[in-house]
Each structure stands twice: as structure tokens, then as C-alpha cells.
Amino acid sequence: MRKELFYNPGILCERLGIESARRRRLAKLKGTPAQSLKLGHIDSLELLEMCRPLGIKTIYDIGANVGTWSLLARAVFPKASIQAFEPLESCREDFLRNTAQVDGIRLHEVALGPADRMATMHVGAVTDTSSLLPPCDHAKLEGTAVRELPVRSLDSFVVANNLPEPDLLKLDVQGYELEVLKGAPMTLQRAKAVLCEVSFVPLYEGQCLFADVVTFMSANGFSLRAFALETRTGVALEQTDVLFVKLSDGVAV
User: Fold this and answer.
1) Are residues 14 and 85 in the same domain?
2) What pLDDT, in 10s, does the model give residues 229-241?
3) Tens digits of residue pLDDT in 154-186
4) What is the CATH number of the domain that holds 87?
């Protein structure tokens, strides 16, 4: 601990309060499938908890990576079924291992976008930075490789595979969120809430930003309800998670 904290009680109390809050957040996950997750995996915990009154039975985890968010969602909604979507083969083994002891989670190895087509995936050395968009030069993402793969629209994939209709959509696809949503008008109509990572500065070429997502969601009957708990204030933002909820007669349900 830094020595100056002992001479500034205000800063010390602030640090102790932050640490206490973090411990309380992790304590919520004890005895659940998410009990082994770290703080960096639970950014959207409180947003998920806000969805409890909505009667969430089916969840789509789009951009599932190695399954940490699926485990978090199962901790909050222990009876919900989870359909996870992740195109990278390199993530499959870790996903299946992480979720092996949890029933009701199904992985679909597919990339989603606005239409059925072939596209280029830019695979980062850190897999959760991978995107169907090329990284900007200033983003300084560690070495990326490219590979061609088929992309499906969410609507066509849901119909072709007879998937259950979702109550909650989660999207974390590195700037490609709006393109996925454009390929899901029917699925979006049936959803009660959307939890989405949004960016305030471009990290990928041609990516959507916060205002683009809010405008699209508003046009499709959703209202911005909340930001992730640890979204910083008073500083320039780069990324955060946000929750949208379906409007009913002009009021968020």
C-alpha cells in the first residue's frame, strides 16, 4: 500500500470503499457457475440483474469468446437457456471446458452479420479483440491474422436451426454490433432487452459508435436504460456496456 494513503484519510477511505464494493460484487457469484470469474469478467453484472423483472428465459450470447459471459448470465438467470455464438475455432475448446459442468448452454460456431456472405475475420493475438472489421492503426492491437469465413444473418440462422426466440440479446463483437443487429430485425422484435458493448472512439475501421447504436435501437423500439456500474465519469470514455429495454406504449418495460 502506498505510504501517502496513511497521511490522506479521504483517499484511504475512498480506496477501502472501492475494494469493499468489488468484494461484494464477487460475493454475489459464490455458489454459482460464475464463482471463478474475475472482476474483469463481470462488468455487466448489474445490467443483467436489472433484467430480472423481464422474465428472461432465453439468452443469446453473441461474441461468446471463451464463455465467461455465458457463465455470468447463468449465475443471474439459473433457469435460462443460453445460445452462444462464437466463430473462432481457437475459442471453442476453452468455451466447452469452461461451460462443461453447466446445462442449458449451447455453442454455435458461426459469425453473424447483416447478411449471408463470406467475409474476412481479423483474428487478434488476444482473441477477444478479433473483429470482422480491420483495426485502426492507432488501436495498437497485438498482431492480427486474417481468415475468410462464412457470415450468417442472425434471423436466417435462427430460422435454419429452429432456435428458441430470445428474451435477451448480448452483443460484444468489437465494433460490428450494429451490423449484427441489421441482420436481426425479426429476432430483435421478439427480444425484451439488449445488452451491448458500445464504443465512443473508433478502434476498428468503419465501426459503429455509441450514438449510432442508440439511434438504431431507438428506431426499433428500445430505450437506453443504464450504463455498466463501473463506467467512469468525468473522463473521456472509450468503451462500456449499456442496457436497452423494449418500449411498451412509449414506456420502457
Assistant:
1) no
2) 999 999 999 999 9
3) 999 999 999 999 999 999 999 999 999 999 999
4) 3.40.50.150
Is there a domain that residue 140 lies in?
no
Assigned domain for 216 exists: yes
Domain boundaries, position 162: 38-114+151-252
**Reported pTM:** 0.90
In a domain, 68, yes or no: yes
Identity of the residue numbered 181: L
110-126 per-position pLDDT tens digit: 999 999 999 999 998 89
Asked whether residue 104 falls in the same domain as residue 184, the answer is: yes
Q: What is the 3-state secondary structure (H, E, C) of the chain?
A: CCHHHHHCHHHHHHHHHHHHHHHHHHHCCCCCCCCCCCHHHCCCHHHHHHCHHHCCCEEEEECCCCCHHHHHHHHHCCCCEEEEECCCHHHHHHHHHHCCCCCCEEEECCEEECCCEEEEEEEECCHHHCECCCECHHHCCCCEEEEEEEEEEHHHHHHHCCCCCCCEEEECCCCCHHHHHHCCHHHHHHCCEEEEEEECCCCECCCCCHHHHHHHHHHCCEEEEEECCCCCCCCCCCEEEEEEEEEECCEEC
Tell me: pLDDT of 10 over 90. no
194 and 172, same structural domain? yes
Q: Are residues 19 and 98 in the same domain?
A: no
Check pLDDT > 50 for residue 152: yes
* Residue 179, domain member (yes or no): yes
Quick one: 164 and 185 in the same domain?
yes
Position 4 scores a pLDDT of 55
